[in-house]
Every structure is written in C-alpha cells, then in structure tokens.
From TrEMBL, chain A:
InterPro entries: DUF8134 (IPR058447). It holds the Pfam family DUF8134. It comes from the Archaea. This is DUF8134 domain-containing protein. Residues 1-107 form the DUF8134 domain.
UniProtKB/TrEMBL annotation, chain B:
Residues 564-587 are annotated as: Disordered. Residues 137-289, 398-542 form the Nitrite/sulphite reductase 4Fe-4S domain. Gene3D superfamilies: 3.90.480.20, Sulfite Reductase Hemoprotein, domain 1. Residues 56-91, 95-128, 322-385 form the Nitrite/Sulfite reductase ferredoxin-like domain. Belongs to the nitrite and sulfite reductase 4Fe-4S domain family. InterPro entries: NIR_SIR_4Fe-4S, NiRdtase/SiRdtase_haem-b_fer, Nit/Sulf_reduc_fer-like_dom_sf, NO2/SO3_Rdtase_4Fe4S_dom, NO2/SO3_Rdtase_4Fe4S_sf, NO2/SO3_Rdtase_FeS/sirohaem_BS. Keywords: 4Fe-4S, Heme, Iron, Iron-sulfur, Metal-binding, Oxidoreductase. It comes from the Archaea. This is Ferredoxin-nitrite reductase. It comes from Halorientalis regularis. One of its GO terms (molecular function) is heme binding.
Length: 112, 587
C-alpha cells in the first residue's frame, strides 16, 4: 500500500496511515538551520503546515517559535519518522528533543 | 488541487453522514475501518462530534448548538441528565468531578468523554426535546450567536431573537449551505450595547437605522485564529430584519463559491476579505448572490456600545440582577471558566423552573442567565445555596475569567487551561486588590493560537506557550494587554512573551500595582494601556513566583490525561469499547 500522510484538525497532528503519530506542543532541537540566529534552535511546534514523503522518511514543516530567542515562523522540512516497509505501514517516529537538521525540500510535498 | 479534507467531503458530507454514524454506533467503535478513521472523524464534526486528543481515542467531545444561547424550559434538565449519564470518563477532573457541562464562548454546550456507542440514545433524547448537535462543528453554519438577553432587554432596538431563530431554521440542515470551505460563524445583535460580538464573526448583523426604519448593517470577515485576528469589516449594506436571511444566504453562497478549498489555512472568509476588500465583497454579493438592490449602510449605534468596551456603564457581562421590559428580571450567574458539574446543572434547571419560566440562556462570557423571574421570586432565588458557587455578584477576578478547553481534551493545545485559570482566579481574589473603582477586569486564557477563549479581546490575554525553567521545559504564556470591543475594538498588544505559568499571577499582581500607582484620575485599564508605547508597556511589570502553586507545569499535553494518577501516555485505557473496557489499539 502507499503511505498515506496528512495533517488534520488545523495542523494539530500528523496522520500516517490513519494513525495519529506526531502532535503539536513538542520541543524540537534544530541544528544547522536557518530558522533563527540561535546555534541550536529550541523550537516549539505549534502547528503542522505541510507534510511530505521522501521514502522512507516522513517529513513535515511546522509553524512555531524558538523559545530561546523568540523568533516565530515556519521551519524547513524536518524528518518526523520513517515508514520502512510500505507493505506493513509501520511508522517509526523520531524523538523530537534529539537533534534535527532541517532540509530545503522534500520529494513529495503533497502525497496522495 | 482540493485538500484531502475536501476530497472526503465531496464523497460524503452534511446530513447524509448521520446514517453512517448511526451504523458505526450500532456496531461499535471497532466497526470503523482503520484506514477510514481520519475521513470519518472529519465528517462526524458536522454532527457535533469531535474526536478527543491523542491518548483519548474512541472518546468524543459533543457540542450542542443553542442559537443565541437560548435553552428553553425543560431543555437544561435534559442536558444535565445526558451529562450525568454519558459524559463520564475513565478519571475524574480534580476541580469539576466526574461529569460536567461546558458553556462556551459561542453560546454552545460541550460534553466530553462521549462514546460513539451512546450517540443514538443521546441524539434521540436531545432531538425529542428540540436540541441538536447538527453543524455544531465542521465546515458549515455554526451556532448563531447574539445578545444573550435578546427580547428581554431594555437596551434593545430590535428583538434579534426571531432573526437568529429564523437563520437557525433556514440554515441548519440546508443542503445548499451544508458544505462550505470552512466554518461559518454568524452573529446577530439587536441591542445598543454590542454584546453580540459581531466584530469577531464571519458575518455580523448589527443594529442600524435607515430612513427611520430599524434593521441591520452588515459586516464580514471577523475572526481571531492563528495569529491573524481580524475585525469584521463594514460592507456598506443595510437590511431590514425580514431580509436578513436573504443576505445571509447570499453571503454564505459567496463563501461557498469563492472560499479557498485548496488550503484550509487560507479558507476563512477573513482571508478573502483581505484579498478583495469590502467594496469588491459588496459588488460580488450584489451581482451574483442576491436578486434585489442592496441598500447602502444605515446609521449604526456603535458609538453607544458598552459591552467589553473597557468601561462598564451598561448591562456589562449580563451577570447580576437586571429588570426586563415586561417587569420580570433576569439573573446572570457567574460560572467560573464556563464549567458546571452535572448535578449543579440539574439543580439550576430546577431553580429556573421554580423561580422563572424554566428558560436559561448562555452568554459569550461562559456564564448562564436565569430569565423571566417575577420580582416576588427574586429574594428566594438569590438565597438558594447554588448561587454561592455561581454568584450573581462575583468578585471581578471570578467574573472576568474565561478559559478554553486546552490540553485536557484538545489536540491543538500547548497548555492546560481551565483548571489553571480556576486556580489563577482564586489566588488573585485572595491576594490582589483591584485599584479603586475597577469592577470589571477580563482575563482570557487560550491554550493555543486558535483563540477559542478570545484572548485578544481581554484586558489581560494569555496564550499557551512553553519556556524553560532550570533547563526543563515548562508550560508558559504569552501575555497581551489592553484588548476589547466597543465602538473602536482593539486587539491586545503582546507585551510579555513566554512567562512560566507559575509566574503569571505574580505578573498580574505587579501589573495592577503599577496601574494603580500610575493611572490618571478615572483612567480605565484599556486607556492606560493605549496611552503607552511598546517599551513603556514592557516596563509595566515583572513576572515572578509567588505563593501561587501550579500543579500543571509538566507539559500536560504529553500525558493521556493531565489529572490521572498515572498520566503516562502508555497508561491510557483508550481506545475502549462501548462499556469503557480497553480495546487492543492499532499500534
Ligand atoms: C476540542 C475543543 C476545540 C477544538 C479542537 C477547537 C478548534 C479550534 C480551531 C482549530 C480554531 C481555529 C481555526 C479556525 O478559526 O477555524 C478555533 C477557533 C475558535 N474556536 Fe475552537 N476549538 C475547540 C473548542 C472551542 C470551544 C469550546 C469554543 C466555544 C464554542 C470554541 C470557539 C472558538 C472561537 C471563538 C474561535 C476563535 C475565533 C475565530 O477565529 O472564529 N472552540 N477552534
Ligand atoms: S484555543 Fe487552542 S487549546 Fe484552546 S480549545 Fe481552542 S484549539 Fe484547543
Ligand atoms: Zn532561536
């Protein structure tokens, strides 16, 4: 089966194959990013803006704020987890509070 | 490309959702195909059911829309009984007990922990008593709001209640307007005080006179969500009461045709208003959506608006004892953060029958009003023990508090809200003196930027955030000051960012001390804030810890239920079957 990813309830969470996987309100630690001037951004995810699949990664851009410096905005693409075997559709989420490096693009910004 | 939600809506939406919902309810939670969960939960909203947040799978929030907040004789008892029988979750709330009703900022009712399996019985009970959950959530005409004492108020120009009732009849269950790009919020105001809060709705009817005739001016495009607050804008149209429904039909058809269905974040009509401006909005409405000549705007009454206008010289928030034009009285009772236990709700229903006409109304400040109380019954009503908890003469910190649902149930939340606001209000009451003459002080607390507690139109606005304390993440709030409605509505200015939740009461204490110290004679808090620039506002007060103790600092959203003894996500019993027994979860 194809991996079905979307954001719902106005960006409150990410659904992967009809299972709620990633929620807002987590703090994400961002390195080598352009979100703000902090070396490591302490980013509070307030809303999911966009989701994408770049097999095996599930990617998302979040709206939120660096709670260190106060900068607000939308992140570049973050890998929020992986679906390694599309057949079983099992999602393996990343740990938000470990270090993440945002990327400029993902393959499929609007998966089917 | 239409959004995913639009695709689901084009398959099944509106009234027809009901038969599927009923089928699933008969067969049980497990009957919903796993790969159709998202689509069905999106659709269930149209029937007033909103799937609760992560960790609470299979439980629903149920919203009952009561137009203009009017709960007719007999209905409150039904609501209390339903809450008592069906709205009990696996764990009690430490402030509010096992079962409770929420009176909301849009004059609706919310129940929580509803099981799908109970929906048919609940619907039957509601509907046989003239109540409904239809279109209470979802992309359609939402509950119509207005002045809660419409038809019973001395300040009234037009009785807006029949108009609101008309709109409700016309647009609930009307297939032509069942599937809109997004929610559609309508307000009808008939009194000269502005308590319909039209300015923050998608479509507002406000009292205005044209050639000696009373009717409404029309405003479009208000809303608070997503850090994009907008006041509704004047589209230079006046309608007589009997044509309000035609203009409303035209406006919502315009939204249906021109609203953005590709990007839900851009869908509310406020964004179309940004793009078009009021002149084009009027022109398109006239040319394509109504078949009569729209009169230009009449003379409005905004210069008389007192509601949430920063000074209180009108009927204010409707709390207290007020005479009706028919010589009876209405008695507004303060419900702290809008939540009332099921037993108290049943008791209130009894009091309303005994002393009034049985009717109870909900305000947009999360309070209740017992109407139609004859003068000779007043003293006995005021002596009732229930009114000690729900006072007609509450302390300003009690009556001024509004809080949204927050991390207890809501997916979008960043922080805990209602229980915390209860604790804030109590601490402030016990520890902080309001400056002389200040009887009205509004503190609105929302757990995220969606702004369901309408934080931007309060004296003190609190919006859910996080910060670190000693390196640890804790719940926090951005603090805004000086918002309100009235003739010249104003959104709060955000002044202090990311204040740890346990330092907010100290901030407010210091703020009020500065206000008392520095204010000019008779200067209201709103004027005091308006008279200061950004730097001056930032210097007004420091946040600090006090004797206030906050049990909800610990990132409540990461729990399955913030008040459970074992609150770890893995300790959640959800999803459960119809009798509350845990089911194997799908992951
Ligand atoms: C489970 C609980 C709730 C959820 C998930 C929820 C969701 C949302 C969302 C996503 C928004 C912002 C997006 C938008 O404007 O459409 C919003 C705004 C709003 N909601 Fe809620 N809400 C909840 C409870 C409530 C309650 C109890 C009320 C009162 C009836 C309410 C009234 C409002 C108001 C007044 C706004 C902001 C004004 C506006 O932009 O129109 N919400 N809500
Ligand atoms: S303001 Fe945010 S946290 Fe509060 S109920 Fe609305 S969506 Fe939930
Ligand atoms: Zn930063």
């Amino acid at each position: 089966m194809t991996t079905d990813v979307h954001q719902l309830d106005d960006g409150a969470w990410i659904s992967v194959n009809d299972s709620r996987e990633i929620n807002v309100s987590d703090l994400w630690l961002l390195a080598r990013h352009e979100f703000c001037d902090c070396e490591m951004a302490d980013f509070l995810a307030e809303g999911v803006v966009e989701v994408g699949v770049d097999y095996p990664d599930i990617d998302a851009r979040f709206a939120g704020r660096c709670i260190q410096c106060g900068t607000e905005g939308v992140t570049d693409w973050l890998t929020v987890g992986r679906v390694i075997d599309p057949e079983d559709g099992q999602f393996y989420g990343v740990v938000p509070e470990s270090v993440h490096v945002p990327r400029k693009r993902t393959r499929l910004a609007r998966p089917e | 490309m239409p959004s995913k939600v639009e695709n689901w809506k084009s398959e099944v939406y509106g009234s027809e959702i009901r038969e599927h919902l009923m089928e699933f309810a008969e067969e049980g939670w497990d009957a919903i195909p796993e790969d159709e969960h998202d689509a069905w939960f999106e659709r269930f909203k149209w029937w007033g059911l909103y799937h609760q947040r992560s960790g609470q799978e299979s439980y629903f929030m149920m919203r009952i829309g009561t137009p203009n907040g009017v709960i007719e004789s007999g209905q409150l008892e039904v609501i209390g009984e339903i809450a008592k029988e069906y709205a009990t979750g696996p764990v009690d709330n430490p402030e509010f007990g096992a079962a409770y009703c929420d009176w909301t900022t849009r004059q609706s009712i919310q129940l929580h922990w509803i099981k799908l399996e109970d929906v048919p019985e609940i619907f039957e009970k509601l509907e046989s008593n003239g109540l409904s959950t239809q279109q209470a959530c979802g992309d359609s005409w939402r509950n119509i709001v207005g002045c809660p004492v419409a038809g019973k108020d001395k300040h009234e120009h037009i009785d807006a209640w029949p108009v609101a009732e008309d709109l409700h009849e016309e647009f609930k269950g009307n297939d032509d307007y069942a599937n809109l790009p997004r929610k559609w919020k309508v307000s009808v105001t008939g009194c000269d005080q502005g308590c319909g809060q039209g300015d923050i709705n998608d479509l507002a009817f406000e009292p205005a006179e044209k050639d000696g005739e009373l009717g409404f001016n029309v405003r479009v495009g208000g809303g608070l969500s997503r850090k994009e607050p907008r006041f509704a804008r004047d589209i230079d149209v006046w309608v007589p009461p009997e044509q309000a429904s035609d203009v409303a039909a035209g406006m919502s058809a315009l939204f249906r045709e021109y609203g953005d269905r590709e990007d839900r974040f851009n869908a509310r009509i406020k964004f179309l208003m940004d793009e078009w401006g009021p002149e084009k909005m009027r022109r398109v409405l006239q040319e394509e959506f109504v078949d009569f000549e729209l009169p230009t705007a009449g003379e409005d009454m905004r210069d008389q608006y007192t509601y949430n206008a920063g000074h209180d010289d009108g009927h204010g928030d409707h709390v207290g004892v007020h005479e009706q034009p028919d010589g009876n009285y209405y008695v507004g009772l303060d419900v702290l953060v809008g939540r009332m236990g099921a037993d108290d709700t049943l008791e209130l229903a009894e009091l309303a029958e005994e002393y009034g006409s049985g009717e109870v109304r909900l305000t947009q400040r999360q309070n209740v009003i017992v109407t139609d109380v004859p003068e000779e019954n007043l003293d006995a009503l005021l002596d009732e023990p229930l009114l000690e908890d729900y006072s007609p003469d509450p302390h300003p910190f009690m009556r001024g508090s509004i809080a949204c649902t927050g991390s207890e149930f809501c997916s979008l939340s960043i922080t805990e809200t209602k229980n915390r606001q209860v604790r804030y209000a109590r601490w402030l009451k016990d520890n902080v003196d309001l400056p002389d003459g200040v009887e009205d002080f509004h503190i609105h607390l929302s757990g995220c930027t969606a702004s369901c507690a309408q934080p931007q139109i309060a004296d003190v606005s609190l919006r859910g955030m996080k910060t670190r304390k000693d390196g640890e993440p804790v719940e926090a709030f951005d603090i805004g000051l000086g918002g309100g409605l009235g003739e010249d509505p104003h959104f709060a200015d955000w002044v202090e960012m990311r204040v740890a939740a346990d330092e907010v009461p100290g901030y407010i204490q210091n703020l009020l001390a500065t206000y008392e110290d520095q204010r000019e004679d008779g200067e209201t808090f709103r004027e005091f804030v308006a008279a200061r620039d950004e730097d001056e506002l930032q210097d007004l007060a420091e946040a600090e810890e006090t004797s206030y103790d906050d049990p909800y600092m610990h990132n409540t959203k990461m729990t399955w239920y913030p008040y459970a003894e074992d609150d770890d996500m893995n300790a959640s019993p959800a999803p459960t079957d119809g009798s509350g027994q845990p089911l194997p979860s799908d992951d």
